[in-house]
Amino acid sequence: MGRQQVTVRDGVIRLGQLLKLAGVVETGGEAKLRIREGEALVNGEVETRRGRQLVPGDLVEFGGEVLELVAKAEA
Asked: pLDDT of 16-71, one tens digit each?
C-alpha cells in the first residue's frame, strides 16, 4: 500500500477533489461512482459522500493508497 502526503492550500478539500488532485482517479465522475460504491475510507471509516469536507490530519484510504492531508506552510 502506497502512502502520499497531499498539501491543501485552503485547509479544506472535498473528498472527490482530493482523489482527483492525488491522481488516484481520472475524473470527477469516476470519483463519484467509486466513493458511492464504498471504496473510500476516511480515518478508517467507509465514506460514501463525495462532498465530505476533509482537513489536514485526515487519512484517506483508496485504491491501495493512503492519502494524508497536510496544510500548506505559510510563507
From this structure: 999 999 999 999 999 999 999 999 999 999 999 999 999 999 999 999 999 999 98
Task: Go through the domains of the chain in sequence order and give each one's CATH number.
Answer: 2-71 (3.10.290.10)
| Amino acid, single-letter form, for residue 39 | E
pTM: 0.90
Q: Are 68 and 6 in contact (CB under 8 A)?
A: yes
Cell of residue 3, nine digits: 502512502
Taking Cα atoms as reference points, which of 30, 72, 64 lies closest to residue 15? 30
Cα gap 65→35, rounded to integer Å: 14
What the block records as the C-alpha cell of 29 is 465522475
